[in-house]
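Data availability (excerpt). The following record was deposited with the supplementary files.
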Amino acid sequence: MSGPLNEKFCLKNGRNNFSINFRTNEEDRAAYFGNKKLNEKLIRDIRKRYLMGSQPKKYIWGQYGAGKTHTLYNIKYQLEESSEAKNISDYTVKCCFIDTEFKEKTSYDYLHAQMMEAITLEKITEIIQEYLNNHAGPNLENKLRNDFGDANIARAIRALGYVGEPITLWKWLCGRSISNSELNSYNLTKNMDTVAEMHRVLVGIMRLFKEKGINYLFLLDEMEGLQNVTNQDCRESFHDSFRRLADDENDVIGFILSTHATNEEGLPNFISRPDIITRLNRANIHSLDYLAQEEDVQKFIKDLFNLVIDEEKLKLKEKNGDVQSGLEYYPFTDEALEEFINLAMGAPTASLPRNFINAINEGAVQATQRDSNVIDTDDLEPAQSIFTEEFGF
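Predicted structure:
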């Protein structure tokens, strides 16, 4: 059942307000609000990497509400779900969205497990079984050792594909500890306890997928949580891992990391040291800026309304005389549009996509309470507090 804002403001079916839900709605992922030039550059850069046979590796930073998560989901749409992506025959991209939660003593093994789980045990087991079948014979042991670079990893990969109890071996490959008896049963000498070992596991598995033309791209969102990690050994494990991921030698694991920061110096120090940045290249560090220009604000509003408003419903209201025809930015009156832009321009550090949507929703509620089919200047009073916050929410 649609809410009151749906009927009042001609919203498309299924929409209760002006918010967008890019996590579950493909139409919302396909739309992009904000710095479209940057978004288009990101997509061009990423596709270029794949055509070169390498992997995209990027950092994206910005203020809360600047659209970092939206950007990642739009990248997922462009690379995996769009008609253009489906028509590309040279390569296939599978985007794995990683939500993270870091604590004082969280180390890289946590992120490694998250990335493995995002691919799934089923897909990894399937491709390992195919690999083992293709290379069955007297040279299989040497092949495994050469491809995975470690005797224990080679044994675990073989056992997972052939005779192993999948959950136990999966735990081990995800960097979790198993008991001594379980280690002995698979002829493993120890649990994985180094970043290098976990990196070899992921590289080896990703290489199997890449040989079939499948590239996994890990979208690491809200990585500012790394600031919660205070244990020095844990911090160094992340430093070591991102140095390996950023290195040119890694040509099979792609990643885009997004994090809150007010400037580049605000990136977590242990993943932005010179040895990582030089490998990553500063051209692959991108900031999502405030929408500081009037035309940017207008474009955002226009694109949002085009996405959520049902034109047929609007035409019917215009025909019935419930709404003045010719409002270019319906449901805003011309005066409300001007007022909204002035509010946004008057508080540049709060001129952010999330604040725009919150302010429009508040204005719509105000208009509904006075039984108006349009949002006028008086309805934007709540927006004044939203746009006077220092950084928004």
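Summary of structural features: The chain is about 50% helix and 10% strand.
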